[in-house]
Specification:
With about 200 residues, the chain is of the alpha/beta class. Helix content is about 25%, strand content about 25%. The protein contains six helices and seven strands. It has a seven-stranded mixed β-sheet with strand order 3-2-1-4-5-7-6, with helices on both faces. It is globular. About 35% of the residues are buried.
């Protein structure tokens, strides 16, 4: 497990105190549009790391997806989500450090997890995402295309993200997000990154 300075207790306390300024109270509109696409297999294994309140779970279930794994490091949050989905076999909720997680997925959904990690973790993030995806599977997400004072959140730019992800992924979609919520309009990128085969 990596020694993350923003550890489980940090995030647990944020949720307990309701200090969750990143929470938009709904599934990201860009994901709602993407996952309605008819060419996506509804049996795809989907991972949502750093899921927070996991609004995307109900969105995915509503669109017919049936293999959804939710991952978060905050114990009280994970316990609440485990209770919520206790009787739903389509959803698995894990309280675990992302970097310690093992599994294989067809789609990984990125929504305000990347920006919660200190920038020094970004290469490890890209490598871990690559390791968790099946061959030619996808990392789909929304990334901030702006800077912040301090952090979290930690911002960044399109050029930085390209250099980070191109060794591990083919950038199939890498563009300004067309379906951002109003307060974030013009400050987000929508990305669809296909896992590359590295080495022999």
């Amino acid at each position: 497990m990596m020694n993350n300075p923003l550890d489980a207790s940090f995030w647990d306390n944020r949720y307990i105190r309701n200090e969750t300024g990143w929470d938009i109270g709904q599934a990201c509109p860009a994901f709602d549009h993407y996952f309605l696409s008819e060419d996506i297999d509804r049996q795809s294994r989907v991972l949502i790391p750093g899921a927070g309140n996991a609004y995307e779970v109900d969105m995915l279930l509503g669109h017919g997806y049936s293999q959804v794994t939710v991952l978060d490091i905050a114990p009280s949050l994970a316990e609440r989500l485990q209770q919520k989905y206790l009787s739903n076999d389509s959803v698995r909720v894990l309280c675990q450090d992302f970097f310690a997680h093992e599994g294989t997925y067809d789609i990984i959904l990125e929504q305000t997890f990347f920006c919660a990690l200190p920038p020094s973790y970004r290469e490890a993030y890209a490598r871990k995402m690559h390791a968790l995806l099946a061959d030619s599977a996808y990392l789909v997400g929304v990334l901030f295309n702006r800077s912040f004072e301090g952090g979290p959140p930690f911002g960044g730019s399109g050029d930085e993200y390209r250099s980070l992800f191109e060794p591990f992924f083919t950038l199939e979609i890498f563009e300004s997000c067309k379906r951002s919520i109003a307060p974030r309009r013009g400050t987000e990128l929508f990305v669809k990154l296909r896992k590359k085969r590295i080495g022999s």
